[in-house]
Amino acid sequence: MVNVKQLAKKEGLITGGTFACTGCQAIYGLRLVGMALGKNTVIINASGCMTLTATHPFTCYKTPWLFNAIENAASTATGVTKGFEAQGKKVNVVCYAGDGSTSEIGFGAVSGAAYRNDNIIYICYNNGNYANTGHQFSAETPEYARTLTSPIGKKNKYGNLLPRKNLAKLMALSGAVYSATASTSYPHDFIAKLQKASRIKGFKFIDLLTPCEPGWLVKTNEMFKVGKMMVDCGMWPIYEIENKKVTVNIKPAMTPIKDVLKMQGRFKHLNGSMVKFIQKKIKKEWEIINSGKFWESEDY
Ligand SMILES: Cc1ncc(C[n+]2csc(CCOP(=O)(O)OP(=O)(O)O)c2C)c(N)n1
Ligand code: SF4
Ligand SMILES: [Mg+2]
User: Fold this and answer.
1) Rounded mean pLDDT of 17-41?
2) Domain containing 242: what range?
3) Minimum CA distance residue for ligand 1 atom 20
4) Are 166 and 298 in contact (CB under 8 A)?
5) What's the gap in Å between 70 CA and the centre of ligand 1?
6) Which ligand ends up closest to the CA of 128?
7) Ligand 2: distance of its center to the CA of 211 in Å?
8) For 117-136, how does the pLDDT look when each residue is reduced to its tens digit (9 = 90+)?
9) For 31, which of 12, 102, 162, 213 could close a Cys bridge (C-beta 3.0–4.6 Å)?
10) Total domain count for the chain?
11) pTM for this structure?
């Protein structure tokens, strides 16, 4: 368990003032990465919103930062980690890539690194959309959310009709020695997972929920709260998988999902019966998880 007093003394390894939106949870996630892992860390980034936080000649990071095309952050990380291994150096090689990059455009590279069990901590900061290019649908957009490319209209009243890819499970099955989900709204859990990952050799994966103000259409002052409520209502399960053994780290209070959906403009079109339908679905998934059949459940 992370010690709060010790944590408060840790440096975030990130300066104040970045080009990220106010309240952006993806940049807050990077602050937590710095607090958890310290200066002996190299960050490999894939094209996305976080890229704009370090554009030559400016950077807000006190750690090395390598920008990559959206497809290949994991491949670059493999090269970097192999280079350190050849020199006998132990450095935290961290990939910080968005959900569009991880689940779709760069999926081959991520899956290859997991398959080879390369010594990387791969974090997918998951805001459920291609934020940097205007909030298009990604394979991580939740079902029934509206995005720029899954708009609400006469032909489609429900937005995105596809369930999201379950990345933490996929990575565990692809060979990750450690695969977990986390939320920036539960920082202690995320930090503990990062510190655990840094002690394990091989490919480690964390699917990190990072609310996005213009993508989710949430009030700036509710960004932290919305991430917490997504966990508390059961929509974002928090768990870890080590060698196929699953541990649920936060048991959700199963608060009504209507409260968290109401906070997000991307779900504004959903009527009462749709909300009930989704609520039933989440309840059912948790019944499956709680009965010990984790691998048969779907994340929402
Ligand atoms: C091959 C390729 N396709 C599309 C783009 C354009 N592009 C740049 S950033 C971005 C969004 C990435 O989304 P995600 O990985 O979810 O990160 P986020 O923007 O949400 O931070 C896209 C589509 C690109 N750079 N390269
Ligand atoms: S668009 Fe979303 S992910 Fe991008 S900087 Fe703003 S809040 Fe962060
Ligand atoms: Mg994204």
Assistant:
1) 94
2) 4-296
3) 131
4) yes
5) 6
6) 3
7) 8
8) 999 999 999 999 999 999 99
9) 12
10) 1
11) 0.97
